[in-house]
Amino acid sequence: MSEVRDSDQYESLIGEAGDRAIHRPTKGLVIETQRLILRAPKAEDAMAIVLLADNAAVARNLVGMPHPYRIEHAFEWIDEDPGEGGQKHLICLKGANGTATPIGAVTLDFRRGARIPTLGCWFGEVHWGRGFATEACHAVIDYAFLHQGHDKLSFTCRVTNQPGRRVIEKCGFQLAAQELGNARYQGAVVPVDRFQIERRTWESLRAWEPLRLHRRTEDEIGGLTTRGLAVAE
Predict the structure, then answer these.
(1) 3-state class percentages of the chain: helix first, strand second, coil last, to nearest 5
(2) Which of 8, 20, 88, 182 is most buried by its number of CB atoms within 10 A?
(3) 6-231 homologous superfamily
(4) Do 158 and 146 touch, CB atoms closer than 8 A?
(5) What is the pLDDT of residues 181-211, one digit of tens each?
């Protein structure tokens, strides 16, 4: 692993996105926030994902979540390629004893043939209402604009999903269109709202905690205490 200078290890990016938009690979990416670790899901995470996702309350307001959620659905998602310029993270809650417990998932991809990368996020019901969704989405959005070169992001939300709408509006997304989508839970076409955010809007509104960069391995990330982003060498 290469030597890290202090200026590289803790590089504040607020207000300087254009100057410091360094491309970094998706493979091996680990993003750390104040309370969360976002990492690639592994086969051994499948049962934990099922225990979180196999809940009607979780699936009801999501367009693409199947119910019941089986182990084969978890493996299908784990193996799924987010594509060039995409992200796929298992969201883990950092524990006081150095553990990291899976609590949800967040993705950025070109689902259903979308031309604009689409953000998606869900959590196990027991973890609702604690601000984790906003925290995870902030990190994914930052990485998308700062290091993946995206100019615009999209988010599709069922009109009944008021918590999801509040999260995405806090992230600076604005309503772009009202459409119809195929909901797997109901097996029917349902109304959805489509939100978008452009880079220039993100740059003008962004006021959350700065993303900081680390070159650390995935095994080392559990010992970090500051918000960071690690890329496996």
Answers:
(1) 30, 30, 40
(2) 88
(3) Gcn5-related N-acetyltransferase (GNAT) (3.40.630.30)
(4) no
(5) 666 656 567 778 889 999 999 988 876 665 6
